[in-house]
Design goal:
Largest sheet of chain A: 6 strands, mixed
Distance between the termini of chain A: 40 Å
Order of helices and strands of chain B: EEEEEEEEEEE
Strand content of chain B: over 45%
Radius of gyration of chain A: 14 Å
Number of strands of chain B: 11
Shape of chain B: globular
Shape of chain A: globular
Order of helices and strands of chain A: EEEEEEEEEEE
Structural class of chain A: mainly beta
Largest sheet of chain B: 7 strands, mixed
Distance between the termini of chain B: 37 Å
Structural class of chain B: mainly beta
Number of helices of chain B: 0
Oligomer: heterodimer
Helix content of chain B: under 10%
Radius of gyration of chain B: 13 Å
Chain lengths: 113, 115
């Protein structure tokens, strides 16, 4: 069973601060990694994808991947109250030519004005 | 381009009944996956269909079943409903589903309440 671990939170940060969300996974052959944001009562939406070691930046969001440590993180700079949501880490791997995906339980982020 | 469409948005059923949920993927997407989301368990994978074939199945009892039609639309059926089946059921589509790295696009979900 492939596992994806996230701290469920809530993680509280003041407005304007950097929010750091972390995710660890158990399978070394995992190949692609995604962060989804889910507002309360809404469905998850993709915000970042990362496939290789290092950092990937998109606006205020930076995804970091370290495959050796089996660790992926999401940094949100200049956090805004509108960033308050649950952030889901998803890990994909190849299984017989098609992908399987496992989600973490999600970290609830609260940005305090 | 229209997103993933799920119907109905809300359902209230009683124990022992059955229910059918519908999902229309994004045009051109051939892979459809179903998830159950509850506060304590997070997103739990139910099954995935690709070109009308179930390719992958999660650890749910046989009361949960699904199918996919030739136009990629999918339905999910739950028979003999139990109180524990109350959840948000999410459908997600992806372009091919057979390439690692294909992100999922979620519908708005169906909120099922079993009384």
């Amino acid at each position: 069973q492939k596992e994806v671990e996230q701290n469920s939170g809530p993680l509280s940060v003041p407005e304007g601060a950097i929010a750091s969300l972390n995710c660890t996974y158990s399978d070394r052959v995992s190949q692609s990694f995604f962060w989804y944001r889910q507002y309360s009562g809404k469905s998850p939406e993709l915000i970042m994808s990362i496939y290789s070691n290092g950092d990937k930046e998109d606006g205020r969001f930076t995804a970091q991947l370290n495959k050796a440590s089996q660790y992926v993180s999401l940094l949100i700079r200049d956090s805004q109250p509108s960033d308050s949501a649950t952030y889901l880490c998803a890990v994909n791997w190849d299984s017989g030519g098609y992908q399987k995906v496992t989600f973490g339980i999600g970290t609830k982020l609260q940005v305090i004005p | 381009k229209a997103g993933v469409t799920q119907t109905p948005r809300y359902l209230i059923k009683t124990r022992g009944q059955q229910v059918t949920l519908s999902c229309s993927p994004i045009s051109g997407h051939r892979s459809v996956s179903w998830y159950q989301q509850t506060p304590g368990q997070g997103l739990q994978f139910l099954f995935e269909y690709f070109s009308e074939t179930q390719r992958n199945k999660g650890n749910f009892p046989g009361r949960f079943s699904g199918r996919q039609f030739s136009n990629s639309r999918s339905e999910m059926n739950v028979s003999t409903l139990e109180l524990g089946d109350s959840a948000l059921y999410l459908c997600a589509s992806s372009l091919k589903g057979n390439e690692v790295g294909s992100p999922l696009h979620f519908g708005n979900g169906t909120r099922l309440t079993v009384t």
